[in-house]
Design a protein that fits this description.
About 35% of the residues lie in helices and about 10% in strands. The chain has about 180 residues and is mainly α. Among the domains are: about 70 residues, no CATH class; about 40 residues. The strands form three sheets. Strands 1-4 form a two-stranded antiparallel ribbon. It has a two-stranded antiparallel ribbon with strand order 2-3. A two-stranded antiparallel sheet has the order 5-6. A hairpin with a 7-residue loop joins strand 5 and strand 6. The longest helix is centred in the middle third of the chain and has 20 residues.
Amino acid sequence: MTPLRAAKAHCANYQPDSSCLGIAFRDDLSMYRFRKEGLPCLLRNCEACPYFEETVLPQVPASVAEEYRKSLPTGTKTNVRSQRATKLCLDCRKREVKPRQRYCSVCAKNRKRQSKRRHMRRKRGLDVEKVANSPLGAEGLTGPEKQVSYPHPKTSILGSSFSTRQGSAEEGSEARETLRVGRES
């Protein structure tokens, strides 16, 4: 929809012969003429119309307001602002970005640099993490725990039950005989 079509459909001042009544309202709702009656519509000559800006543009899509603003000559004073919401950078929230961008140029450069660093660290094997289910396990990185003593803490070398002294062959034969006597009885 063009601004002129929007005026034909919604403007109360627009006449079938494409002339303008030139009537507007003040804040206290009293009427006044902002131009002479019967002159051609300002939109036909690509001029700014205060009544159109105030009354008609809020009723029509934002694309009509954008087209109206672009149709005016540069330097023309108007109250119409771009209706498009400004999109900010997702990272720094300081700079405005284009509609299809997520990050401003500075943040995009930083993110790209970080991504390349992560990739190269993985590629070179510097960022490899060993997990418990790997063949080496976490022990491969820390080194195995070495046991200095016997595995059972109650057993000690000093209080052992075996004899370290060398006995004679006679003592061994006596011990065998006592075992046989115990079995026979």
